[in-house]
Amino acid sequence: MLLIAYNDNNGAYTCIDTAVQFIDPEWITTFYAPNAMTPGYGEEGTRHFRPVGMGIKEYEIAIYSPWGQLVWGSTELVDNQPIGFWDGTYRGEDVPQGAYAWLARIKFVNGVSRVFKGTVTVLR
Prior knowledge:
Largest sheet: 5 strands, mixed
Number of domains: 1
Strand content: over 45%
Shape: elongated
């Protein structure tokens, strides 16, 4: 950052000075994924598994069935925020009610990489 200070002291004399300071911005970085969803029922916010976050540079999330089968995944980001969502289906069919494991690998804009994991319960 460059600061230029100027004062002409009402025409008496001119004083100009500059200062340079390198600064690192403080990035706001977050990630959250819901732990339950109700496909086809309830309020709009509960019908899908929709992770949210900000300050994300790279993103990969996957959801696995109780038997370890990949049922959904996404890498979609817009403006450093995830936009993909899971609707509770696999190959066009509704998945059974139950708990599904998810794993997210994230690299934030500040260079920090993290792995998040959890479960999402599908309620029908």
